[in-house]
Amino acid sequence: MIAAAAVFFPIVGASGASAEPPALRVPVDCALGGTCSIQHYVDTKAGDGARDYRCGRQSYDGHEGTDIRVPTVAEMHDGVPVLAAAPGRVKALRDGMPDAFKDQLAEGVLTNHEAGNGVVVAHGDGWVTQYSHLRLGSIAVAPGDTVRAGEQLGTIGLSGNTEFPHLEFEVRHNGAVVDPFTGARKGAGCKAGGAGLWTARARERLAYEPGGLLAAGFARRKVSARDVVAGRVKAVRVAPGAKAVVFYALTRGLRAGDRERIVLRGPDGTVLAKDTNALSDASAQRIRYIGTRTPDGPARAYTARYTVTRGNGDERQPVVDVRRELSVR
Q: What is the dihedral of CA 151, 153, 155, 159, to 10 degrees?
């Protein structure tokens, strides 16, 4: 499992439990389902274990926000704007924490700073939104600023307690965590229902996606999920003298029972390697690869296909279906 925790910046909220909640827009400027995707939802389950608002497993125990990620640090460096989800006033912020994977940080750096760089916006009547794990130096507002819905606050980063570049978006009312997809308080259960807090357009853009592809490509050796997310795969690209060709696929949100199939073919369509697998456990982030040795140097072209299906018997539906081609020159 991968997890990214955030700690709320403490501020004093106003009272007013009967007040109307803010209508929330999508808090990032990116193509959901393309450039970015939802990795985790609020944990709706009280007690041990975790369930997202659709009773799926795209959450982890105690998670309080919605994690909207980009696949790798390359997209982070391109700059993905984080936007105010509703009008309000900046009540608190933090900057100065480096963009780094949590295991790269010195001991004690994360103490009381798990959320990394971030911004808290108050919307009145006790409603607050928090934007965590922002990129170092990207914050574009100051305490006391009035912000419009859609105004840029910063960009997606890798700061704080995290293993992938993302925004963790949290909603609170009078200090209690609220799931923006249902409008219910955290722990109310995945069948709590409710229209949620998103605008109609935002809800459409944030449609539930039970798993998907993050990245896929070729390398000259086996690569790890960290290699892909950190952008190190470019350093192991396939060149004419390579002794192996490896195809990899990085996925998110796979479930127990999902079936993987991966095939690598040579220039004439000959199958060089293939494998199938049924997952025994859910996987928040998973790397899958297959390869072939090339003692005399690689051939000029390769084709790989990776699929994941879900369901029972003949009712299986595609979750991932990706094809990649490689030309070696």
A: -160
253 contacts: CB under 8 Å, gap ≥ 6: 39, 56, 58, 209, 210, 211, 212, 283, 284
Cα gap 121→39, rounded to integer Å: 23
Q: Are 168 and 6 in contact (CB under 8 A)?
A: yes
Domain segments of the chain: what residues? Answer: 37-205, 212-327
Q: Which of 298, 241, 303, 290 is nearest to 261 (CA)?
A: 290
How big is the CA angle at 207 (ends 321 and 118), to the nearest 5 degrees? 105
Distances (CA, A) of 20 to 24, 165, 188, 197, 297: 12, 32, 19, 10, 66
CA 146-148-153 angle, to 5 degrees, is 80
Q: Phi, psi (5° rounding) for residue 95?
A: -140, 170
Tell me which CATH code domain 37-205 carries. Answer: 2.70.70.10
CA-CA-CA-CA torsion sign (287, 223, 72, 262)? negative
DSSP-derived secondary structure letter, 157: B
Superfamily (CATH H level) for 212-327:
Immunoglobulins (2.60.40.10)
Domain 37-205 identical in fold to domain 212-327: no
Task: Give tens-digit pLDDT for 39-93.
Answer: 999 999 988 889 999 999 899 999 999 999 999 999 999 999 999 999 999 999 9
Could you count the other beta carbons within 10 Å of the beta carbon of residue 254?
25
**How much of the chain exceeds pLDDT 70, in percent?**
94
**Confidence bin at 20 (pLDDT 50/70/90):** confident
The answer to whether 139 and 117 have CB atoms below 8 angstroms apart is: yes
pLDDT band (50, 70, 90) for residue 19: low
128: Cα within 13 Å, side-chain hemisphere = 23
